[in-house]
Predict the 3D structure of the following.
Amino acid sequence: MMDACTGRVCSTERVAIISGSNDLCVAGSRFYEGPLGGNQGGDNGSAVLMTVTPSFHPAATAVNDGARIGLRLLKVAGTLKEKEHSLDTVARVASFATDLWRTLNGDTNRPGEYGPCARNGSLRASLLSLWVSSER
Amino acid sequence: MSTSQRRLTLSSMQDARVTEVPVRVLGDCLRGSVALHSSQPHTPAIRAQAALAIAQWQNNKAPASKDAVGSDAWLGLDILLQYFRERFMNTIKKILPSRFTRNISWKRVGNIFTYSDLVKDDEDERDDFSEIGFEEDEEYRVRAAVVTAISSIRAKNGQTPEKVLKFLENELSDGMTISIDDYFDLQEGRSKNLTPDIGDVVRNQGFLNDSIVANSLLALCNINTRPPELDSSFVIPGQLDVGSRTGDISSHPAIPLIQIAYRWLQWGLYKERTALEDDSMVKSGLSNSGASIASSAVTSLYSLALLHQTTMSSNLDSNDESSAVLREITSISFYIDIFDEDKLTDRTRAAAAQAITCICCAADRFLDKNKGPTGLLSALEFLLEKISEFCSSQSVHYMYFLLTVIVLVVYQSQVIQLVFS
């Protein structure tokens, strides 16, 4: 959550901090000093807190629980075994998946124009990771 | 004659108990004690790490409850707070702003600089140090690390102690008074056509503490608190709902912090909206310095809003100020308005996008299968639409911001999923 505020999002070199207990302190130390002890700006990335529990991080738990449920919807909506969700919801997921697939392949809704991924490999890779995440 | 030697057991070293020695040593390091390898204090980088290590030690030795009292219970926290009081508070216990430069005197012989504080007290030699200059004072990095370290401290049950909440409240309140007063003095002068010299204002201010404020706002994301549970034997029947944590929302310990963060957000947004109106403001450096306040305030606000929502069920229909603020910061439209505003910086709009995504995800917990958990889907649709809108523009950074949000949420969810499965 620190990421959007650091102002260093232009860099494509990112690091994920995976730590155990005391992960807030470890993440803080990485973000403040970096792995080599340089000042402010050694690391740029996201801290994944491995000890998220309802009693320790209730807000993060709420987001994670919701994201997990939402990802499951993207994964199972429209499959043969799945009958839980309404047709409207399934249609929305299908429409979103179509837009995502077109966008990451460099297409756009407007004829004669290149999509945002046409000349941007990083963007394409990021959207592809979202696609893969929804598939698993 | 027996050659066996009795086992030596030490209970204290230099008036400190052995178990406290590590944190005492770290405290000395934080204060700038002389390092073993040289006659100089440790560098700010080392001292910042020492502050975070003290917090780590405190969390390992944390008492069972946040209400624990006694000199041993919060030793690490007390060392950090004492350091902060010594260095960054004045005699009337007001928190001082951060200085980013310091005056130094040195002399230069060829390409070699000699600083006056590195020579012994010799008046003849001191006269040679006539040149006065400015250097970056890295003390503010240590200060930022101390604030983060203090905010990370928890009891064993995961609750943030009261002292930490009070500290963050004071720090943000004092910083607000100083910064806003200075800025509005400047605005008032402009409105009355007094045309004050902005350079003078900046010099008189002597500090730009916005990054410290932004850091403190981000530190609010680390806290975890909930309304106190009352023992049923202390409650008059029919007056309070014991145990279910319902009732007056102002009883939640996070409410004062939410109100302060909300005021900082209004202030940061105002500053960003007016930053580009005047060239002289842009050139002064004053305008750009607040760019991180609004984004940090957005991040802290949605985090605190979710914390309040998950730890207390309350009725937000009342018309008091706290309810109005809570209604606003828990609604998606509030962040969408920030996102859609062209005058704001990309950083602030990205923080709003992150807030939208997280609040949408959190809402999925409450939706049943008939209605569909479409929170994450709605957020992703929104972000993808915005990415497509900017496909022909030069806002490459902007798109990275949005992607950061998407990937962050998705990866966060997956890793946590692995842990629990």
In short: The radius of gyration of chain B is 26 Å. Residues 20-100+137-154 of chain B form one domain.
